Amino acid sequence: MKAFILDRYKKKSALRFGDMPKPALGQDDVLVEVHSAGLNLLDSKIRDGEFKLILPYRLPLVLGHDVAGVVVRVGANVRRFKPGDEIYARPRDGRVGTFAEFIAINEADVALKPKNLTMEDAASVPLVGLTAWQVLVDRAKLAKGQKILIHAGSGGVGTFAIQLAKHLGATVATTTSVANAELVKNLGADVVIDYKNQDFEKILSDYDVVLNSLAGDTLQKSLNVLKPGGKLISISGPPDPDFAKEQGLNWFLRQVLRFLSFGIRRKAKGRQVSYSFLFMRASGAQLSQITSLIEAGILRPVMDRVFPFEATNEGLAYIETGRSKGKVVVKLK
């Protein structure tokens, strides 16, 4: 099968377009013919080697963390899906590979595609949808009447998180550029901060939750908008000891992550707030709940561009510019 392959870790390098064996089908797997695949910065970061300590993949590797497609075969133990089903998924870590014509996915990671979405739209949802869900619902336990700041509101996670936060009854502030202000307002943002000309930490206060997806000093500044008991949840790092424990990392790596996050955890404790790092996990069950909200018209994907499959490297280069509004996908079928 045709695929985009990572042969070695190297920053900004192009993935190799070539042939790989069709994936083997396990007893608990569904074999999916890929119709569309979402592009994520996570793919670029793995390619660049940023996660090689905590995600020890064996190379060569097919990248890709979002998929929409059709089930063509099922393993002996599979009961929830059958050939011909239209599905979408974020395959679990260790089994990614949606930049290919076929992928085998554990049944537990898969959900039926929302009936009101195209394959391209559906492929844009799983990673960002599950990230937003696990931050807001699982970790933050965001409740009606609370206030949340969502950084980078026009990005993939941001566009989804704004909608979900509004559905949960929260007041939503977000940072974005002037060019994207109307977009985030239409998604439900109550307060829009122009990050180029306004300082969010001087405008916002007494917030319950901050969802951070940015690097630099944004993380430190975010502590200043939280009230005592508030939660700073970052999906861009630094990873913390709880994450190291969840991943089952060895003693040395646990100490490394403890050191990397020590500063922000200490400052958070000094302000009587909590800091945590979230690395989303695959979940077909949660994706099914997201499907219900999409089919009810409560959540909608925001799409920037669709690239042909052959232009996967160009698509990754585009999202690395940081200028995309919502998601970017590649189309195979």
UniProtKB/TrEMBL annotation:
Keywords: Oxidoreductase
SUPFAM superfamilies named among the record's database cross-references: GroES-like, NAD(P)-binding Rossmann-fold domains
Signal peptide feature range: none
Entries under SMART domains matching the protein: PKS_ER
GO terms for MF: oxidoreductase activity; zinc ion binding
Tree of life domain: Bacteria
Oxidoreductase found in the keyword field: yes
Domain Enoyl reductase (ER): 12-330
InterPro entries reported in the protein's UniProt record: ADH-like_N, ER, GroES-like_sf, NAD(P)-bd_dom_sf, Quin_OxRdtase/zeta-crystal_CS, YIM1/Zinc_Alcohol_DH_Fams
UniProt cross-references to Pfam families, sorted A to Z: ADH_N (PF08240), ADH_zinc_N_2 (PF13602)
PROSITE patterns, per database record: QOR_ZETA_CRYSTAL
Oxidoreductase in keyword set: yes
CDD domains: MDR_like_2
Regions annotated as coiled coil: none
Protein name as annotated: NADP-dependent oxidoreductase
Top-level taxonomy: Bacteria, Pseudomonadati, Pseudomonadota, Alphaproteobacteria, Hyphomicrobiales
